[in-house]
Amino acid sequence: MDPLPLDADFLFRMVMTVEGAAIGQTPAGDRRVGLVTGGHFSGPATKGVVLPGGADWMLTGPDGATRLDVRVMLRAEDGQLIGLTYTGIRAGPPDVLARLAAGEAVDPATYYMRTALRFETGPGPLEWLNRVIGVAVGQRPPQGPIYDVYAIR
């Protein structure tokens, strides 16, 4: 049997601003928390703002990779609220990851940053998001994370 195709539709680009806080070394690894302070998103599916108050609980393990665990709230231009939950991985060569950690601008082609997303929203024009799985290709410039978000068909 041939594998089934995996198709995706581009939904939007999400740009977030975050403030960092370091918990530090824990039994599970190096724990940092990025507090979401705002942002915006725009694309063929919808556009709007990223509301302040979300957080990214990042855990860097002994392999140098950072596991992302994020919850944020979006407000579409028409006022519809969208809960967004995603997990992911940021990994790459140690020197590239060290430059990212130092807040330097790094070419996103030199590291791996991918996430799996779930949406939650109420009745309205974006209700269909409740029934899709999203994936995103991310990058981490000094100003905050940027994600190109896709719906898997």
- DSSP E strands, number: 9
**Cα gyration radius (Å):** 16 Å
Average pLDDT number: 96
CA-based shape: globular
Give the SSE string.
Answer: EEEEEEHEEE
Helix-strand makeup class: mainly beta
What is the distance, rounded to the nearest whole angstrom, between the alpha carbons of the first and last residues? 20 Å
Counted by DSSP, the helix tally is 1
> Which residues form runs of ≥5 with pLDDT under 50?
none
CATH architecture: Beta Barrel
Q: List the domain count as a whole number.
A: 1
Report the CATH topology name. Porin
In percent, how much strand structure appears in the residues? Answer: over 45%
- Helix share, percent: under 10%
- What is the CATH level 1 assignment? Mainly Beta
Largest sheet: 9 strands, antiparallel
